[in-house]
Structure formats: C-alpha cells, structure tokens
Amino acid sequence: MCLLHDTFEMRLSCFMFLVVAAALWPSARGNAPTNVSLPDLANSYWSDSGLKMPSKELVDAVNRAKLPLLDAFGHRREIVLMSIGSEFAFQRLFDVFLANLQNISFTGANGIQDNLARHIVVNVMTPGSAEKCAGLAAKYGCYCVSFANDAFTLGNFHVFSNDFYGIGFTKTATILDGLTLGVDVLFLDADQVFFRNPLPYLLAREADILVSGDCHNHGDATPMEKLPPINNNIGFVYFRPTAMATRAIYNWAMWLRNIAQRGEKPWDQTTFAGAIEWVSGEVSVRHLSMAMLHSDLFPYYCMGPCGCDLRGVPYFHNGRLPQRIPGTDCDPDLMREWYNYHMPCAGDMNMKSDLMEEYVRMYLRVIGPINSRSVPMTVLS
Prior knowledge:
By secondary structure, the protein is an alpha/beta fold.
C-alpha cells in the first residue's frame, strides 16, 4: 500500500499514484470484489468469547517452524516468520518471495545449513488455495495453514475494496496467534526480497515492537513509548511475545472490528500506530516499547526506486528520495546497506514479482551474492 510522506506535494503524488494504479491494473479489474459487508467480514473472525483461538494446525506449524536463537544480550529467543497469502498471490508472488528467503541461509544447530524459508508460516486466506501453498511448502520447506474465508475473491484484491480491508482482519489474527503461542513474530508481506539476514539486526534491539517506516532520520536502538511522527509500513513488523504487546495487537484487532461495525473503512495500515500507542501511553515504555527501523536499511518502493538517503541529513528530518534513471542502477553505497526491498505502491502482485526479481538482479550485479553481507547468528538447539 502506498504510504504518504509529510509534504502536501508528496501526499498528492501518492494519492494520484493510487488512483492511476487502480485504473490500470487489468487483473484487478477483471475480478469482481466480494459483496460481503465489512461488518459481516469482521465478525467472521470473532466468536462469542472474542477473537477466535489458534487452530491446532497453526499451533503445530508454529512449533515446527520456530527458530531458537541467542540475541545480542545473551537471551534465548524463539522466532517465527509469518505471512498471509491469497489465491492471486500464489500465482507467482510467493514463489519469488520464498525462493529469495531460501537464499538467506545460515548455519543451524549442529552445523547443519538452514535458511529463512524453512521458518515461515503462511496463513492461506482463500478457499481452494491450500494445494498451491502445499506445493510451495514441498519446494521450499515453509509451512502452510488453512485460514480460508469464503468471503474473499480468488482474484487480485482491489485497492480499497472490502477484500482489501479484510486483509487487516487476517493480519491481526495471524500475528496474535503467533504471539499467544509465546514466540517472537516477524510478520512479512510477501511482496519483498531480502539481501541479507535481518534477524541479527532485530535481535540487537530491545524494543517490543519494531516496524519499518518512511524516509526519515531517527534512531531505532532506544525503546520508545511512541513511534516517530511519520508513516509506518506494517509489511515488515517484529513483535516480542510480551503480555502487553499481545494485548496491544488484540486492541488493534478490536479497533478494526469496531470501525467496520460503524460502517467505516478499517484500514490496518493507518490504524496500527494509534492502536498500539493507545496501549503504550497507558502503561508506559516500561511495559510496552517500540521503535521504527532505519529507513535507509529497510526501504520500500513508496519512497521511490532507490529507497532512502540519510547521508548528511540532520537528526529527526526527512531524508532524500534518490531517483533511478532508466537503464541505470541505484547508488552502490546505499544498496550495500539494504536488508530488504519491499514493493508496495508497485501495481498488482505479478508486477510486484517482476520488480522483486529485477531488484535481486540489480543487487547481484552491483553488490554481489544474496546473503554475502549477512552477519552470523547463534542458533540454539
């Protein structure tokens, strides 16, 4: 989704992009969105006693996928990567995504080679898509769990359709299920590629919640009660399984449901910070802390084609958004520091897949092999 920057010009430009992109996506126009009402869609995730509990299938998948690690402070952590996928995403996007995660390899316990694709749990959103995800699981070693909702269309989700807003109900439930099982959760949208292992970086930070955000110069090592006053991007967000972080995600899910029941549009992206900070403001940073990741290290396409340049930018100011001349590469000094590149604001899922492959080729051409700049981490048995 396109995240907006602070200036009026940037907001106008981003809005126009969404309007034009929605008009030009032929695959989206060819698939009718669901006719289910948003209140009914929201309520389908809840029981009389609250948000539905994790299924046995998900519990088993998380237990098999979790990766035990030693963090930078000498503490044992168990991490699971989590994502969600629809029928349209399984056409091509997830294959590119998982192939890339497979290239982020590391030495596991007892010296056995391991990779990140083997530690991701994918909640399958659409009926009839389980077989396609199972094929990817056989190929890459990931774990697929049925989380199907009959309301969702099998096509590309229209921007601002009920399907689009329904993603938030699936996302919050997925994150909450992981946290309630006592594992750290790195939630990833599938429209991104990685160039080096992000886990050592995340494990060197003490905040309960870490999220990517717009091009802006700020720190991410000090736990804070609030995020910087800029837009976040919840396609890359990391949670520790603390009691208050879990409570905050439940609060976020409830916010989305309440918005839908009022007949309004429950967008997960724009409600995340408010829902989390409503809890952190009540309990203080001692019980719930957060930080926004350095945007030059974790860039995304809404910033522009070459991410974020913070060189020489004063602290707490917006960074520069370098452009990319057609036929040329991004600045090697910027690319060398990238952990990933995320592709919101880039068209439908097949367009995103093209860009993901293009950025992998550019990185190989300019910097070198994927994962070559990853630092070691200590995997526990």
